[in-house]
Design brief:
Blueprint lengths: L1 H23 L14 H4 L12 E2 L5 E2 L7 E3 L9 E5 L4 E4 L5 E3 L5 E10 L12 E2 L2 E2 L2 E9 L6 H4 L6 E11 L4 H7 L11 E4 L15 E6 L10 E6 L3 E4 H9 L30 E2 L11 H41 L11 H25 L6
Parallel strand pairs: 1-8, 2-16, 11-14, 11-15
Antiparallel strand pairs: 3-6, 4-5, 4-12, 5-7, 6-7, 7-10, 8-9, 10-11, 13-14, 13-16
């Protein structure tokens, strides 16, 4: 009886383990027979109530002053050992060394890998997994870490509620190229088909991140691919990272989800999961909406034009004031250089002396002349 009581639970455990292993071996896809709408039938966790990705409605988020800035550890210390780039048929994965990690969370997390999600229609056609206020970005980068304080490895941690921490970076397109992302994109052609791997030069992982790591959204969710374990603490950065249109095109058109030996070549595109219901979860923010109000492009344009007009107006006023001061100063100088007007009826002493001298000389001259013309008196 005791032996039977021990044997039955052991058999049930083996059956559950075999079923789980078989489920993880099922070749899932994003569309088709085992597409994301059917994931929950083969991977029960994918039908859970805390799934990812989600749409972040900023008006429903809650500011949490206890969310401190995250600190990447060793991201810029890549050393000389090359990284491994892998096409797993679902995305491009870069395996990360275990000296890289993440602090700023309740536990220390060790880096495992990073991968990308993208669409197929080019800029403004979507491709990110997370959305903000219903708007998607062109692509998304995930950096995956496991809780190395509580669990020995990724496999053990991924089934635990506090096992994983993933950083999510939204990617948009612009005119300028992003050299940091070329460290991955330039080597995609070497892993064009599924199951191909190649060593690539190590590079600064932190250069892939946005500059502002203080502003982010935080919520509890899951892996966005099967088996969809609900074990992830998500950090979605508010600031986007920009790449060029040519870089996005390379991301969307280089890889295949099929193997090199397969007859049908299938481009690896639209490898993003649809957003999932939040249910009773609350998305926290590390910043308040009042102090970090995001401006629309129209508001930014209005502010720039207003500032330029203000600067021009101020320059005109300053120029007018300076010109007025200069003209006033010049008139004062000219006025000071003019001789003062003489009062009528009064003459300067020096002028009087000159006139007296002239009169005296004239009198003396007349006397002399009169004296010389008088006839001599007779004796």
């Amino acid at each position: 009886m005791d032996a039977l009581g021990f044997f039955v639970p052991l058999m049930l455990l083996c059956v559950r383990w075999s079923a789980a292993s078989a489920a993880e071996d099922i070749p899932w896809t994003y569309t088709g027979l085992v597409g994301q709408t059917e994931w929950s039938q083969h991977f029960p966790a994918c039908g859970g109530s805390s799934q990812s990705p989600v749409d972040v409605a900023t008006t429903r988020t809650r500011f949490d002053p206890g969310l401190t800035p995250l600190t990447p550890l060793g991201y810029d210390q890549h050393g000389h050992k090359p990284f491994t780039l892998h096409n797993n048929g679902h995305t491009a994965v870069v395996e990360l060394p275990d000296w890289m990690g993440l602090s700023g969370l309740p536990w220390l997390f060790t880096a495992v890998q990073m991968h990308l999600h993208w669409g197929s229609g080019g800029p403004s056609h979507g491709g990110s997994e997370h959305t903000i206020n219903g708007l998607s970005a062109d692509a998304e980068l995930h950096l995956v870490h496991y809780n190395s304080e509580l669990y020995p490895n990724m496999s053990a941690a991924m089934t635990q509620r506090d096992g994983l921490a993933v950083l999510a970076i939204l990617i948009v397109t612009g005119e300028e190229s992003n050299p940091a992302y070329d460290s991955i994109l330039n080597y995609l052609s070497r892993v064009r088909h599924a199951d191909q791997k190649v060593n690539i030069p190590a590079f600064d992982i932190q250069s892939l991140l946005p500059k502002d790591l203080r502003r982010y959204y935080r919520y509890n969710g899951s892996l966005t691919t099967p088996p969809c374990h609900q074990s992830v603490t998500w950090t979605l950065f508010h600031e986007r990272v920009q790449i060029s249109k040519a870089q996005l095109l390379k991301m969307e058109t280089t890889l295949y989800s099929s193997r090199s030996a397969d007859a049908d070549k299938m481009l690896l595109q639209d490898n993003f999961r649809s957003t999932q219901p939040l249910n009773h979860r609350v998305v926290l923010t590390s910043f308040s909406a009042e102090s970090w109000k995001e401006l629309s492009s129209g508001e930014v344009t209005a502010i720039v034009i207003g500032a330029m007009c203000g600067c021009v107006g101020l320059a005109v006023i300053v120029r007018f004031i300076v010109k007025t001061i200069r003209s006033t100063s010049s008139w004062d100088v000219l006025s000071n250089n003019q001789p003062a007007a003489m009062p009528r009826g009064k003459e300067p002493e020096k002028t009087k002396e000159t006139k007296n001298d002239v009169a005296l000389k004239a009198t003396s001259g007349g006397e002399k002349k009169e004296h010389s013309s008088r006839p001599p008196t007779e004796p």
